[in-house]
Structure formats: C-alpha cells, structure tokens
Design a protein that fits this description.
heterodimer, A: 251 residues, alpha/beta, Rossmann fold, six-stranded mixed sheet, four-stranded antiparallel sheet, globular, B: 424 residues, mainly alpha, ABC transporter involved in vitamin B12 uptake, BtuC, 2 domains, two-stranded antiparallel sheet, two-stranded antiparallel ribbon, 17 helices, 2% strand
C-alpha cells in the first residue's frame, strides 16, 4: 500500500449469482487527487461505487479507507468514517426544501442522529453551515422550494451539495453530468472543481473532455477488470485502452 | 402578524373545547371525550404514516395495550390501595405503548412498504386472537373493568371531569408531537419518508431511526388508549380488532396526512358523525365508507390538504368568480346527499328483518313503511321519484360546476407557476 493512499481496493470481486460483474480489482486512490473511473456501459463502474459505499458487500477482496477495512460495512458506518457518495439517478428528498435537504446531511456530521429534545431552529452551527453550503452550490434563491421543483441540473447540484454536507474526506460522484447540456455540464464541473478542493474525489464520468480536464489520474474499467490506471496523458497513449475503449471516440 | 394568524384558529378552537362542554349533556360530553381521544390517536398514527412514510395497519395494538395497562394500574389502585394520582393514569398507557412499540417496531421496521404494513397487521391480529384466551392479562372475552379513584379533591365521577382531564392530556400530547416535528429528529423523520436510501448514505442508521419513530408513535397511541380506558373504566380485546386499526387509517386519510392537524380534523369529524348518525341510521358505516371513497377519489389530500391548498393560494384565488360555483357546488352536494340518503334509508328499511315481519303479517304483501317521520309506499312514485330526481339533478349540476372550478383552479396554478419563474 502506498503511503499516501486514502482509499485502497485489493482483489475486489463481485458476482451476482453466476454473473461476474467485477474481478480482481486493485485500485489505489491517493490523498487529494481527482481520480476518474471510465469504461463502457456495463463495465461495472456503478457496482464498484456501490461496493465502496457499502450498498452491498464484495464477494471477495478488501477495501481500505485510511487503512481501515470498510468492505461489508453498512453505508451509514462508511459515511461516518469519511466517505460520501452521490447517485447517478438523483437521490434527494423531493418534498423537503432545498435547505432542509442539505441540513439533514449537516446534522449527521454534527452527530445529531437521535436529537428529539430541542428545536432544530436553535442549532446555530448546523444552520449556518447549511446556509454556507447552499451558497457554495449556488442555490440560495431556491432555498425554501421543495427539492422536487428544481430543474434537473439544479437537482444535480443539490445532489453534490448533499454529498458534501456530511463533511467527507473522500467523495464519490457517480456520473454527475449525465443527461446535461453543455452549459449545465460546464456549470457542474466548475462546481465540482471548486467544492472538492483539498479533498479526494473518485468520479465515474462518460464525458471524456470532462474527465481529461478535471482529473489527475484515470482508471479504465472494461468488462469487470481494471485495464489501466494513469495520468490523462498515459491513458491517452495506452494502446490497450485505445483498442478496448477510447478507439471509437478518440480516433 | 403571520404568527398571530396562525395562532388565532388554535385559540378559538381551544376556547370552544374549554367553554362548550359544560353547556352540553353528558352524552355529548362523552362524545367529545371520544373525539379528543380519536384525534390524539390519529395524530400519533400520522407521525408514523404521514411523516415517517410507514403505513401501519395494526396501530390498534398500541392503542389496546395502552388501555389494558391503564386498566391494570387502575385495578391495582382500587384493590391494592396503591397510591397513584388518578390524572396520571395515562402514563401507564404511554409506558406500555413505548415498550411494546420498541419491541414490535424493531421487527416491523426491518421491512418497508407493503411488507411493513402486513407485519403490523399480523402483530395486531396476534394480540386480537390471543387476548380472549389470556384471562390474567386481558380478562378473557369479558375484558377488565375497574373504578377511577378520587384524587386531589376531584372525584372523577362525572363525565365533565373526565372530559377536561382528557382535554389536558390530548392538548399536551398533540403539542409534544408538534414540537417533535420541529426537532432535528423530526426533520430526519420526513427525510426518511422521502428517501430512506439517502438517509443511510448520509450516515444515519435507517433501521434504528425507523424503530424510534415507530416507538414514539406507539407511545402516544398508548396514551390515547389509556385515556379511553380512564373514560370507560373498562376495556376488552375488541380494542385490538382490525376495525380499530382501519378506523385510524380512515380518519387520517380523510383528515389529510400531509397536514399536521389533518388527522385530528378527520378523527373529530368522524367520531362526531358516528355519534350523531349511528343513533338515527343503521347505515352509518356505509355513509362513512362512501365519504372515505369520495375523499380519496376527489380530494386525495384530505380535508386538511384542501384547506392548506386554499390558504396557500388565498391571494391568487379569484374569489369573486369562485364564489358562485363554490356555493352552487355546496348546494348540489347537499341535494345529492339528500337523495342518496333517502334511497339508502328506504332500501335499508325494505331489506330489514323488521319489514319482513311486517310483510308476513300482511300476507307477504308490500305494506307501507315509516321513515323520516312519515309513511311511504314501497313501489310508490312519490317514494322514489323525488330522491332519484335529487340525485340526478344534483350530480348534473355538480359535474358542470366541477369543470368551472377546475378551470379556475388551473388559472390559479398557472399564476403561481408564473410567479415562481419570476422569482427564479
């Protein structure tokens, strides 16, 4: 294990019954880097995220977060250990206000999990942090509207805001720009660049221009196996990657 | 100012609840006591259903457990000379509700949706079938009865005393449940309803959270059951029946589960309705069912939801143009109601054993029958034409007016949407 790895996957495999989704994944994410996972549809990228974030346990292998085993732990434990994720399909509280969506996350960071004997309006630190977060994701004007009423790109921004709300050290973003126009993509990428400053980012993304401009290192996943990991230049120059995946788009 | 407007209806309601009962007879006082108890039960239930997003079909379990706990405490005071303040009896209901709620909640909240509903239904059914055979705990089929003891200068013998005791408890408990919605955990409960998965991925233990919401709801349901026991001085296993569980679901949906006070409104209206109509008509359960179906079809947000809709858009509603259709629709509803009630009541009489006895006496002919203070021919035009005409006329008018009201409301929503865009 490299000394500066914050997230380390060793020999991760996942099968659903007879279907092998992932096989022998070794991946090391360095502290403070922006790391992309790319690969064709069905390569197992989302499954990889689900394993790391605890949606289900891996069939084999181990996942270390700051050297501590997290494989097989429930999502809320992993979150409390400093890893938060966003979802490919927007996963927000539709009927709650935008502010409330963020505050739920901030409350968790403050350990207010079973607090039922004081009003939430009196929690100054929590409310101030939620307001600050609201500004960072630039949704102040939407503060009191139900999250379900936001536009798609606003919901994606909220999704990222909620992921940040628990104050994670490692952030997993699952296709943050999926289904967006160019302008919207640009807006969200700038947002990601800004809010992940000083944190570790692992992102699944289909838009290659986004991946190459945003990330420090890239891992290529093809048919459940990790083909290569390297800097954008290395990945561009990698023959196997070109053949397997980039060929169609880059050539 | 806004706060004042909010508090004014509450203050008025409290004034009525405090000032009115002494002017009423014991029967109505008792009905109002039951109304308050039903309101608390429904609000407690809605913490789980409306706020936590967990539809329980077995809430009678906690209501019943609360009632039995209070009965046992009451018996202990009465027989054993245990000194316990009578006004605090419902605390036993709260404790029982909490304990049983925690245990059953742990299991029930392992599942969601339909499976959760079925587990709760099964739990209540289990108690319902167990209780009549468990003499010691549930008093067998006869149940348990006891006496309230005088305490602190109060005899607790008159209905009005019990009414005020209930009022204090219900006000306190509904107040606490309202305060609960304002706490961090109360907010988390709403988040749980909207998206349980995200709650887990934000670092919350969803199962523990659901279990506690369940237990809090069960605690206050237990208080409601306890108050019923205090009021009736007896209780039996029928309190665990599906009918009781269904009743609270019905109250909550008709009152409106999306509004905090909605379930209380639904419970109050239906309890009063039951008291007033069950004396006059045997078909009152049918009426209740029909009202439930109509509300679900045409106002799925319930009474509370409809009220909130009007309050939210108050300034945008074109009241001048809306007034006539609203008044007309109200009148037409009354017509339809009158026609429907007449038809139902006539049929009820004609199919009753009582009328069959009359027919036998008349050699299986079709003698006149009595209803609404006069007599009717079973096959007379004068019997059937007026109600059917009322029904048809009323329905036609309603359909026409409905279109106009819907069109006007579309304007309101469009305006609201435009304002939303304008701000954004």
């Amino acid at each position: 294990m490299s000394a500066d790895a914050v997230l380390e996957l060793r020999g991760i495999a996942k099968s659903f019954g007879p279907a092998r989704i992932l096989e022998g994944i070794d991946l090391s994410v360095r502290r403070g880097e922006r790391h992309a996972v790319i690969g064709p549809n069905g390569a197992g990228k989302s499954t990889l995220f689900n394993l790391i974030s605890g949606l289900f346990p891996p069939t084999a292998g181990s996942i270390l977060l700051n050297g501590r085993e997290i494989a097989g732990r429930p999502p809320h434990r992993i979150n409390r250990m400093g890893l938060a994720r966003s979802f490919q399909i927007t996963n927000i509280y539709h009927r709650l206000s935008v502010f409330e969506n963020l505050r739920i996350g901030v409350m968790a960071r403050h350990g207010l999990r079973f607090s039922m004997f004081r009003p939430v309006s009196g929690l100054r630190a929590v409310n101030a942090e939620s307001e600050a977060l609201l500004q960072r994701i630039r949704l102040e004007r939407r503060r009191d509207q139900p999250a379900g009423d936001l536009t798609y790109s606003e919901q994606r921004a909220l999704e990222i805001g909620m992921t940040l709300a628990t104050g994670p050290e490692v952030i997993l973003l699952d296709e943050p720009t999926a289904g967006m126009s160019q302008d919207e993509t640009h807006y969200v990428i700038e947002l990601i660049r800004e809010v992940t400053e000083g944190k570790t980012l692992l992102v699944v993304e289909h838009d290659m221009s986004v991946v190459f401009s945003l990330c420090d290192r890239i891992s290529v996943l093809v048919y459940g196996e990790l083909l290569a990991t390297g800097t954008p230049d290395e990945i561009r120059a990698n023959r196997a990657v070109q053949e397997a995946y980039l060929g169609e788009e880059v050539a | 100012m806004a706060l004042l407007w909010r508090l004014l209806p509450l203050a008025l309601l409290m004034a009525v609840l405090i000032g009115l009962p002494p002017l009423l007879g014991a029967g109505l006082q008792n009905a109002m006591t039951n109304m308050l108890i039903a309101a608390l039960f429904a609000v407690a239930f809605n913490l789980l259903m409306g706020q936590g997003g967990m539809l329980s079909f077995g809430h009678a379990a906690f209501y019943g457990v609360g009632a039995f706990a209070v009965m046992h405490l009451m018996t202990a005071i009465d027989r054993g000379g245990l000194s316990f303040p009578t006004p605090l009896l419902p605390l036993a209901g709260a404790a029982a509700g909490l304990i049983v709620g925690l245990i059953t909640g742990w299991f029930a909240t392992l599942r969601s949706g339909v499976y959760f509903a079925l587990v709760t239904l099964a739990l209540a059914e289990m108690l319902h079938s167990l209780a009549p055979h468990w003499e010691g705990l549930f008093g067998g089929e006869a149940g348990i009865s006891s006496m309230r003891m005088p305490w602190g200068g109060f005899l607790f013998g008159r209905v009005i005393e019990i009414y005020y005791l209930t009022l204090i408890w219900v006000t306190l408990c509904i107040g606490l449940l309202y305060a609960f919605t304002r706490t961090p955990f109360g907010r988390l409960t709403l988040a749980l309803r909207d998206n349980e998965e995200r709650v887990r991925f934000l670092g919350y233990d969803a199962h523990a959270t659901k279990m506690i919401v369940f237990a809090v709801s069960a605690t206050f349901a237990g208080v409601a059951g306890g108050l019923l026991a205090v009021s009736n001085e007896q209780t039996n296993y029928e309190l665990f029946s599906t009918h009781v569980s269904a009743q609270v679901v019905l109250h909550t949906f008709v009152g409106g589960s999306t509004v905090f006070f909605g379930p209380a409104i639904g419970a109050a209206i239906f309890t009063l309705f039951a008291y007033l109509v069950s004396d006059v008509s045997r078909s009152w359960l049918l009426y209740q069912g029909v009202i439930f179906v109509l509300v679900m079809l045409y106002a799925p947000l319930g009474i509370g939801g409809v009220v909130m809709l009007h309050l939210r858009h108050w300034a945008r509603i074109p009241w001048r143009r809306m007034a006539a259709p609203y008044a007309g629709a109200t009148a037409a509803t009354l017509l339809v109601g009158a026609g429907a009630v007449m038809v139902v009541e006539f049929l009820e009489v004609l199919f009753s054993p009582h009328y069959f006895a009359l027919r036998r006496r008349a050699d299986m002919g079709w003698p006149e029958f009595h209803r609404f203070g006069t007599s009717w021919e079973p096959f007379g035009l004068a019997t059937w034409v007026p109600p059917v005409l009322l029904l048809i006329l009323g329905l036609l008018v309603l359909l026409r007016l409905r279109r106009r009201i819907v069109a006007l409301w579309e304007e309101v929503h469009e305006q609201a949407a435009a304002e939303g865009r304008g701000e954004a």
